[in-house]
Amino acid sequence: MSRFHSPPLLLTFIVIFRAFNQITISYSLQQEQVLVSPNKCNEKCGHLQISFPFHLNTSCGSLSHPDTFRLSCSNSTKLHLDLGSQSYQVLNILYGGIVVDFPGIYSCRRYFDVNSFGFSGNEFYGISLDNVLGLSDCEDSSVCRVGCEKITVLDCERSNDTISSTCCYPLSDRSIWRIGNGFSRFSSFGCRGFSSWVQGKRGVKLEWALPRNFSKNVCAENGFFVNATTVKDGVRCKCQDGFIGDGFRDGVGCLKWFFISAFIVGSIAALYGISRRPITLGKWDSDPGNDDMNVISFRKASKPRFFTYEELELATKGFDDGQKLVDGINGGTVHAGILSDGSHVAIQKVHCKNEQDLTQVLSRIEILSSVPHKHVASILGCCFDSDRTPFVIYQFSTNGTLEEHLNHGGDRKSGLDWYQRLIIAAETASTLAYLQQEISPPIYHHNLKSGNIYLDQDYSIKIAGFGLMNFMEGSSLCHNSEGGTFYRTDVYDFGILLLEIVAGSTKNRDLPNAALSKIRSRKLEEIVDQSLYYHEQPQFRREQMETIADIAARCLLFGGDGRLSMMDVAKELIQITKDSLDGSARRGPAIDETFSNSSLLQMISMSPDTSFAH
After folding, report:
1. Between 20 and 30 A from 385 (CA), which of 56, 296, 419, 570?
2. Cα(555)–Cα(563) distance, rounded to whole angstroms?
3. To the nearest 10°, the Cα dihedral for 48, 51, 53, 55?
4. What is the spatial distance between Cα 108 and Cα 204, in angstroms, rounded to a whole number?
């Protein structure tokens, strides 16, 4: 038995937060925490994520000053900001600021001419007070300040280097250098050279702001204007107390503090659980097409990113009903969409009642993202419309859902043939069995339906749309139309799915009751999908259809109380699929025996109106 251990807690923590590198926390001058988001096109240049309000393409700009915050990317590696006739290489983008290198200088030098920088400010940018200067060859030592003579920075070779300066000056001192001055101000003290550091790294930080007269309606709800520090008559947006974000309507906006704490607590809780939990690979085959019974197919675990609500709204045409794949309660509503880069996605909206629900959902997104199974749909990321409305973004296939194929929806005029349906059933059962019995703690779907099974171009499945509130619990208590109760499990839901695969329709809410009656009276042909041409099939294939119907009946009758496990179902389906290659068919327990052993069937017979609707 193979066991794969997740990485240690600290390493996992680093990896996850790199995966969510679009959500970064920086600090303003007052050390207030601010979320910085990528721009709406999620642009990058080399290793730098381009964050709001900066952009490369004009169409990706969010404010009414596209040229002011427009950057250029040379050789796909070096980002530049043009100010007047000078071009400055961008080293980093922070909240309210952008760190640039000295113009035209790409060699590693300790000091630069005090007149070489060439920029002192305009209506959008100013030299930030966060910069600490090292000055050389100053004739007047009164410019020098105590406490910044030594500073540990990253040198040009990216190694730690302790820089010793005989003279240094933090711009926050403001006794000699004033806002609006350029670095040439220090030439009056006889200084010939200078260097600049910000947050322990080489570079010059420029503060950015918007002119007050041109800033109407740019702040988000719960955001308000604050004055810039070094940009005359410039303003930026800030969140009210109790909220966190960049304050801009087209940026992160303002989110409630409890959401941020829930995200952190949920992430750490999930990471701690993952770091302590080995993922165990079993000895059975989870891929029906694989002849090696000891092989399980895996893909690399996905790294989620943060999406903006505007991205999802655009992708789904405003969450139009025509884009809806699933309309559920436990798993939430799921819409199909296409991102700006052409990627097809499925977007699951999860309703959270309180902070505890949100924390639970976040931690389970983390866990699902770490499951490297090829038949579990990749989670691309998540989004938060408000303090308690998370969205989960899955990778989606242009070949649609199983439900669409069974109902011949959209452009899918031809249905699935019988062998394709067998493969889909076996892949689904084996994947669920893996999640429930080969991962500890087990993962249950709790929202299994044909609309949450995606098909790729080869009709191989991807399972999505998990019920994120309780997917580590094996069953849930449900009520039928007569006021009675029964336990609903993934096995029970899979029984309904099998009936839909046989019947070729997902629209008959009374299918379980009708199917059980036909199966018992051996009139299965009356519910089999007409496109399968039951009476024209060879004997062994008709027996397979009856066997699948038999398994479906046992899932409904015995799945709720645990007498039939998903592993049992998966093994039977895998064997049937393999046998179908040579034309044989092995029956499970006889249908008569199945029904005679079921006290639940007697209840159904006595209460014909009892509904097992999906």
Report:
1. 56
2. 9
3. 50
4. 15
Q: Identify whether the C-beta of residue 56 lies closer than 8 Å to the C-beta of residue 72.
A: yes
Q: What is the DSSP letter of 577?
A: H
Residue 391 lies in a domain: yes
Given this model, what pLDDT does residue 259 score?
60
Residue with tokens 């930026």: 236
DSSP characters over 275-319: HH-EEEE-SS-S-TT-S-TT---B-PPP--EEPPHHHHHHHTTTT
From the list 355, 413, 420, the residue with the least C-alpha distance to 388 is: 355
pLDDT tens-digit series, residues 171-203:
988 889 999 899 999 999 999 888 888 876 788
- For 557-592, write each residue's pLDDT tens digit: 887 777 888 999 999 999 998 887 655 444 444 344
pTM: 0.53
The tokens describing 190, both together, are 């006889």
Q: 131: how many CB neighbours lie within 10 A of its CB? A: 22
Tell me, what CATH number does 381's domain have?
3.30.200.20
What is the spatial distance between Cα 309 and Cα 381, in angstroms, rounded to a whole number? Answer: 12
Give dist(CA 516, CA 494) in Å, integer: 15
Name the token pair of 456: 């790729």
